[in-house]
Design a protein that fits this description.
Number of strands: 14
Radius of gyration: 25 Å
CATH architecture of one domain: Up-down Bundle
Strand order of the largest sheet: 2-1-10-11-7-6
Bound molecules: flavin-adenine dinucleotide
Distance between the termini: 49 Å
Largest sheet: 6 strands, mixed
CATH superfamily of one domain: Butyryl-CoA Dehydrogenase, subunit A, domain 3
Shape: globular
Length: 484
């Protein structure tokens, strides 16, 4: 077992990984200036072991290891995991940090697999705990034509697939996309992204490999980069992620690292087991953003001198209701958690998906409310260089003072700008809609997880009472049973 520090994490990223950024090869991610903020941000997942050891360090008698990899067995374990995820995210201003997603994938593998595959997943799990490994998860395939399953895609590489196999290894080709942390993780866990049929056999594959494995190339998105002024961008100047198109060109994977090899019947269960944990991670790491939105709304209303206006009170109440409803569902997901396969606890899928859906569905309205309260300075306000010049600052202090001094007001307005507009706000807007699954994926899981027995019984009871005869009631009961 081991706990690594941020320096050791950063040093571990210096290897032969093949990373392409803005069309150029990056030879050393640890010294590449544009990646520095993202690596520093992800280092928080290692710093937290020293700053919050009670929450972030586990020990089951074999020495300390990261609590992110502590397998949950009880509802209290799920609650503790939620607290850990929220606390880490708060140090990153509401941006997911690093170890959350990898641990979601580890728990899914340990829960769903059996026999030899489970033994391989357990060995990999031990390796992760013993070396405090930074994991990225590549689940989402590029998917080509969304209306077609993997085996019917015109280009078979649009879902990652097994193209070759010998006694010791499989060889895979294809591409995953949106892979967060891939360029700044040690290893990559690959999971199937959907349920598959027998004809999709070659595409039903799961494994783990080091990021510097030959044949793997990461094309990193530049979307979040370029906002470096702390006055103008209090969050995005410090907190960023790296996401990639992750291309596998005949990548050889040793069989001891292959968890699923052409087993389509397990593709769906594994994909969904990951999602159960991943959406719980999502709603907990998003809680600090919701607190920022509520706090910034209250702050800017006071700074603008509108806090007592009726419409403002209503808008702030709506913001609070939105944020606290997500928090309530997140708590409920832990409270109603239950034992899944192999004795591993899973958050309640109904509550988790309701939390994530409610977050995603309400995010854009919450952003609009903040922009309403802040006023137009979000996009016409002064920049950090203006503020740094004493003679310009004197003008800004005079004319941008309102119910609070200009500095407090402008910093709040820029925080709202960062949260809701520009690259980071735009990133959050897409993240809310798609990351950890799209709105439709959440709705599908809500419908699947809902047990309608109680609702159906309520209807049967009222109708039975209205009909009033035992024959009719029996008929009705059997009709309801058929409908079930
Ligand atoms: C910031 C960010 C970080 C991410 N990090 C990771 C990560 O680390 N690892 C990872 O594996 N993934 C990651 N994802 C991927 C995320 O899970 C996907 O974005 C999400 O599942 C949606 O997939 P998509 O982007 O391909 O959109 P699409 O699936 O193309 O969705 C677009 C629209 O098409 C609809 N649609 C899709 N398929 C169908 C269909 N068959 N029938 C009808 N409608 C359909 C959807 O409902 C949606 O309305 C990340 C995404 C984001 C935005």
């Amino acid at each position: 077992m081991a706990i690594r520090d941020p320096q050791s994490y950063r040093a571990g990223l210096r290897d032969d990984r093949r990373v392409v950024y803005r069309g150029e090869r990056v030879h050393d991610v640890t010294t590449f200036a544009e990646f520095d903020d993202a690596i520093s941000h992800s280092s928080l997942a290692y710093a937290i072991s020293a700053t919050h050891p009670d929450l972030a360090v586990a020990d089951d008698g074999e020495g300390p290891y990261t609590a992110f990899y502590r397998v949950p067995h009880t509802a209290a374990d799920i609650t503790d995991r939620g607290k850990l995820i929220e606390t880490l995210s708060r140090t990153g201003a509401g941006t997911i940090v690093l170890k959350e997603v990898g641990s979601d994938a580890l728990f899914a593998l340990l829960r769903v697999l059996s026999g030899e595959s489970l033994a391989k997943a357990q060995a990999f799990y031990r390796h992760c705990c013993e070396n405090d490994v930074a994991l990225a998860v590549a689940q989402t395939d590029v998917k080509g034509d969304r209306s077609l399953p993997p085996h019917r895609q015109p280009d078979p590489d649009h879902y990652l697939r097994v193209v070759d196999e010998d006694a010791d290894s499989i060889t895979v080709s294809g591409a995953k996309v949106h892979t967060s942390f891939s360029a700044n993780a040690d290893e990559l866990i690959v999971l199937p992204t959907r349920a598959m049929s027998a004809e999709d056999r070659d595409w039903a594959v799961s494994f783990a490999i080091p990021v510097d494995t030959e044949g793997l190339t990461l094309y990193v998105s530049p979307y979040l980069h370029g906002d470096s002024n702390g006055f103008e961008h209090p969050i995005s100047s410090r907190h960023k992620l790296l996401e990639s198109l992750t291309v596998f060109d005949r990548v050889r994977v040793p069989k001891e690292r292959v968890f699923l090899n052409r087993e389509p019947e397990l593709a769906g269960p594994l994909a969904l087991a990951f999602v159960d944990y991943h959406r719980f991670t999502a709603v907990n790491y998003k809680l600090p953003i919701l607190d920022l939105m509520v706090g910034a709304g209250i702050g800017v209303a006071e700074a603008n001198g509108i806090a007592t206006a009726g419409h403002v009170k209503t808008k702030l109440t709506e913001l609070i209701t939105y944020a606290e409803t997500v928090r309530g569902f997140a708590d409920l997901a832990a409270l109603r958690s239950r034992s899944g396969g192999n004795g591993i606890q899973l958050p309640d899928p109904l509550a988790v998906n309701m939390a994530k859906y409610h977050f995603a569905h309400g995010f854009h309205q919450a952003a609009a409310t903040l922009l309403d309260l802040a006023g137009g300075l979000v996009v016409t306000g002064p920049g950090g260089a203006d503020w740094d010049r004493p003679e310009v600052r004197a003008v800004l202090e005079k004319y941008f003072a309102a119910a609070r001094p200009a500095e407090e007001r402008l910093r709040l307005i820029h925080l709202i700008g960062d949260l809701t507009t520009g690259r980071w706000g735009g990133y959050q807007s897409v993240l809310a809609t798609h990351a950890e699954g799209s709105l439709e994926a959440e709705k599908m899981q809500i419908a699947r997880s809902h047990d309608s027995t109680r609702a159906r019984a309520a209807v049967a009871e009222v109708l039975r009472a209205a009909i009033g005869t035992s024959d009719a009631a029996t008929e009705l009961d059997s009709d309801m049973a058929v409908a079930r």
